[in-house]
Every structure is written in C-alpha cells, then in structure tokens.
C-alpha cells in the first residue's frame, strides 16, 4: 500500500516598516539610494556609537499585532543575536528573543471547508542587515549598508499550514492587513516583505513532526508556491528511498525550480543571545495600546460589507478591489468625483488589471490620479469621446497620468456629432462596399458591423458608433 504524506508548513515573514528613518538612528529608509549613502556610525556598527529606539517602530509593531489578534507584551526588551557575516556590520543583530512585543495571535484564511485559523506564535522587532552584491566579473563581493538598520517586524506563524494554497492565502491576508494599516508597502520585489518557509513532511495520521528545512530567497508568491511543491516532492522522495531529511537552510532557485543547501540549521544557542546592554526595556502603557487600537483603519472585511451596501457592483469586483488598499483608495476617490461606481470598477477590473499584468507591476505602482480617471469616465458617459478613443487615452493616463481634457483637445479626439458630415461619410462607405450592402439587404444583418467599422475608420475613430448604426440602417432599409 502506497504511503500518504502530509506537508507541515510554518512561515517566518519579515516586513520592513514604513518609517522615514531607521530603527536605531536617524538615517533614511528610502529604497534605491546610491550604495552606502543612507548610513551613519550607528547603522554601520562603529565602536562607541549607541542606538536610540524609534518610537514609530513600536507603534507599527503594536498596530500589526492588534490587527492579527495578538496579545501585546507591556514589558518587552531587545537582545543581541551574535553571528559573523559581511553584511552584518556589528557582528550581531539587535532582535527580540526572550520578550517579543506580540504573542499568541491568529489570522483566519478561506479554505474549501470554510475558514481556518493560522496561529501566530509571536511578532518581534529587529533591525535589517545590509546587502551583499556579488560581482562575477571582478570575482568579489561588495557590501551596501543602506538597508542595515531598516526596521523590521518578524511574524512567526505556528506550523498550521498544510499546502501552498494555504500559505499564499495566509500571506495575502498578512499583506492586505499591513498595507491597510500603512505599516509597510509589502513589496516583495523590493524586499519589504520576505518569507522564509519552514517545511517538513510526515505520514498522514502521524503525531510527530518530520525533520524540517528552511527555504530562503523567495521574492514572489509564485516562487513561494513552487518552492513548497518542489521541497515537498524532494523530501517525500528521500523518505521513499529510505533516506533521512537533513535539517538545514536551503536556497530556492526559481529559474531551475530546485533548492540547494546553504548551511546546516543553527540552534538558538549558536547565536549566543543575551539582553542588549545599550537599550533599556520597553514599558508599554495600556493607554498607548488603546490609542493604537482606536486608530485602526477600516480593514478589508469591513470595507467589503460597506461596498455591498453603498455601491451596485458585483461581489467579485468587491473582493478584488478591497484586497488591495491602493485599488480601494483609487476606486473610492474616483467614484466620489464621477458618481459612477460601476464604470470605475469596470476600468479598474478591466484595463487596469490588464496593463498591470502585461507590465508585471503591482497595484502599488499605479500613478494615475483619481481626478484623471474620473474625467475620462465623464467624457465617455457624456458622449464627448467614444469607447475606442477612451481606451487609447486610458493607456496614456496609466503611463503618464495625463490631463484628459487637454489631451483630447490638443489631439482633436472629441467625438464628431455633426450629422451632415456623418451622412456624407456613410454615403461614400456604402458606395464603396456594395457587397456588404447586398448581404445586409439579403438578410445577413451582421454585415452592418463591417460597414460601421469602415465608417469609423473613415472618421479616424472619432464618431459615435450608435449614431453611425442609426444612419446606416436608415440608408440600408430605404
């Protein structure tokens, strides 16, 4: 009888917080600066420099913890995690091991049976390391300390997930919640949200966990899903061959769709954790926790309920629009300007999603303003431009956020509603396409579509198709 296996997955999710300055110094956290320009003696580990805790980091960590149903430790402290690596300038990382800020939380994710709770063991604050750049040409590695000291929270789940699908649902819930809080943009492609996957397999019905591996280098949801499937298959194959799974850290190569061992997995004692002597413990008053709780925004679930009451749009549209704060903000702001929620939803769900997919962008990368999108919808609804022209203009808004009315005026894209001009053009089209005219009069009513197209072509796409249809029928049915 073939053995049946179960996958057991827990995640360690690192999230860069959206503070303007680093966790223990005043250096900028802005992404993309020239190497080693956002640095100072503190974040480069110079002797004698002393860290000072950024209050906003504590507030963001509390806000995320409360949103994920955690208990807040009113007394928490920082520890030193000691290890040597070139991108770690102090030779230790300031983190929280013994008394993290948040514990015992959970999130609910949708599964086929309804909902499933994924436990959150803890959330702790820590500083990010620098970044190594490997130069193959010069055969050397260079280090950029701009990211060193950028504030992180690490969200450590319980091993409650059993498939890649559950993992992605969990990550999407985390990302949406954190984005709504404004605590991080959670851009996986920029590293502001990173997930390490702890995975083991065991026979179905077994009470003991198998030997787990940890996979790193996962910078997209698709890569995470492929890594889980690949590592599950690798471990099952080892067990089927009578071999043992080795506890280790592995690097996932998404191009080759295979993971490679990096190092044997360290235990906590290898890091020689001890309380950081330069940072006092953090005492959090209940009043502060209450202020953070009361400042919480309207989250996705609440927003979805309100959308169903206020806007006449499909449930599917609501689920997509509310899953991303940027999309929800654009939808609401545009609707407030043009008072046409269905048309706004159509543009966001249709053309916007198409262009995002084609250009491999995230909703957070959208630069078009609600004002310009609202103007486009108004001009289309008023018949001042037709739908073909509107699609062309939308691409310009998406790319360059152009002023719609000025663009229409400068390029003479307004709909031609001069009936006499249309009639003259249609007469020429009919005279040049006698076969389509005969087909229509012989009962092939679809032939009118070709004649409409030819008229639109002659009018350079600036006519009202409805008016063309009406005049064509008048001529053809004489």
Topology:
Elements (H helix, E strand, L loop, with lengths): L4 E12 L38 H13 L3 E2 L2 E2 L2 E4 L9 E4 L6 E10 L2 E14 L3 E5 L4 E5 L6 E7 L6 H18 L11 E11 L9 E4 L4 H20 L7 E6 L4 E7 L9 E2 L6 E2 L2 H9 L5 H11 L4 H8 L2 H14 L2 H18 L11 H12 L5 H14 L3 H7 L8 H14 L1 H8 L5 H12 L6 H12 L2
Helix pairs in contact: 2-3, 5-6, 7-8, 7-9, 9-10, 12-14, 12-15, 13-14, 14-15
Features:
15 helices; single chain; alpha+beta; 3-stranded antiparallel sheet
Q: What would you note in describing this structure?
A:
The chain contains 15 helices and 16 strands. It is α+β, with helices and mostly antiparallel strands and 478 residues long. The strands form four sheets. It has a nine-stranded mixed β-sheet with strand order 2-6-7-10-1-11-12-13-14. It has a three-stranded antiparallel β-sheet with strand order 5-4-15, with no helix packed on it. Helix 9 (370-381) runs antiparallel to helix 10.
Counting DSSP H or I runs of 4 or more residues, the number of helices is 15
Distance between the termini: 79 Å
Which class of secondary structure composition applies to the elements? Answer: alpha+beta
Q: Write out the strand line-up for the largest beta sheet, numbering strands in chain order.
A: 2-6-7-10-1-11-12-13-14
Helix content: 25-40%
Cα gyration radius (Å): 29 Å
Strand content: 15-25%
Instruction: Identify the quaternary structure here.
Output: single chain
Largest sheet: 9 strands, mixed
What sort of overall outline do the alpha carbons produce when their principal axes are compared?
A: elongated
Low-confidence stretches: none
Mean pLDDT: 89
Number of strands: 16
């Amino acid at each position: 009888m073939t053995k049946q296996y179960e996958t057991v997955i827990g995640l360690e999710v690192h999230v860069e917080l959206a503070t303007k300055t680093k966790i223990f110094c005043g250096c900028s956290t802005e992404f993309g600066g020239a190497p080693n320009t956002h640095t100072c003696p503190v974040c480069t580990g110079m002797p004698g420099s002393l860290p000072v805790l950024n209050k906003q980091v504590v507030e963001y960590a509390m806000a995320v913890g409360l949103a994920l149903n955690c208990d807040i430790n009113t007394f928490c402290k920082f520890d030193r995690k000691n290890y040597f690596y070139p991108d770690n300038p102090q030779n230790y990382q300031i983190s929280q091991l013994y008394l993290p800020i948040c514990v015992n939380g959970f999130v609910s994710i949708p599964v086929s049976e309804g909902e499933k709770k994924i436990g959150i063991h803890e959330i702790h604050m820590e500083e990010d390391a620098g970044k190594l750049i490997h130069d193959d040409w010069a055969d050397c590695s260079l280090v950029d300390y701009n990211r060193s000291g950028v504030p992180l929270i690490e969200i450590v789940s319980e091993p409650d997930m059993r498939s890649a699908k559950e993992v992605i649902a969990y990550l999407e819930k985390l990302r949406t919640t954190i984005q709504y809080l404004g605590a991080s943009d959670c851009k996986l492609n920029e590293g502001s949200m990173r997930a390490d996957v702890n995975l083991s397999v065991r026979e179905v019905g077994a009470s003991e966990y198998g030997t787990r591996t940890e996979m790193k280098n996962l910078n997209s949801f698709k890569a995470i899903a492929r890594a889980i499937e690949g590592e599950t298959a690798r471990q099952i194959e080892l067990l089927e061959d009578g071999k043992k799974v080795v506890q280790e850290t592995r690097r996932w190569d998404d191009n080759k769709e295979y993971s490679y061992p990096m190092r044997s997995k360290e235990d906590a004692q290898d890091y020689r954790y001890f309380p950081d002597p330069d940072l006092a413990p953090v005492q959090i008053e209940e009043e502060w926790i209450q202020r953070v709780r009361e400042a919480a925004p309207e989250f996705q679930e609440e927003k979805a309920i309100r959308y169903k009451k206020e806007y006449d749009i499909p449930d599917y549209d609501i689920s997509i629009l509310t899953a991303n704060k940027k999309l929800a903000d654009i939808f609401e702001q545009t609707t407030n300007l043009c008072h046409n929620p269905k048309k706004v939803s159509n543009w966001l769900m249709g053309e916007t999603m198409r262009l995002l997919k084609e250009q491999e962008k995230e909703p957070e990368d959208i630069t078009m303003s609600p004002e310009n999108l609202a103007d486009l919808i108004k001009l289309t609804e008023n018949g001042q431009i037709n739908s073909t022209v509107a699609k062309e203009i939308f691409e310009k808004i998406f790319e360059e956020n152009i002023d719609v009315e000025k663009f229409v005026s400068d390029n003479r894209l307004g709909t031609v509603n001069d009936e006499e001009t249309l009639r003259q053009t249609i007469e020429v089209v009919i005279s040049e396409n006698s076969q389509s005219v005969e087909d229509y009069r012989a009962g092939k009513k679809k032939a009118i579509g070709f004649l409409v197209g030819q008229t639109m072509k002659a009018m350079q796409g600036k006519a009202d198709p409805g008016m063309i249809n009406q005049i064509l029928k008048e001529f053809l049915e004489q």
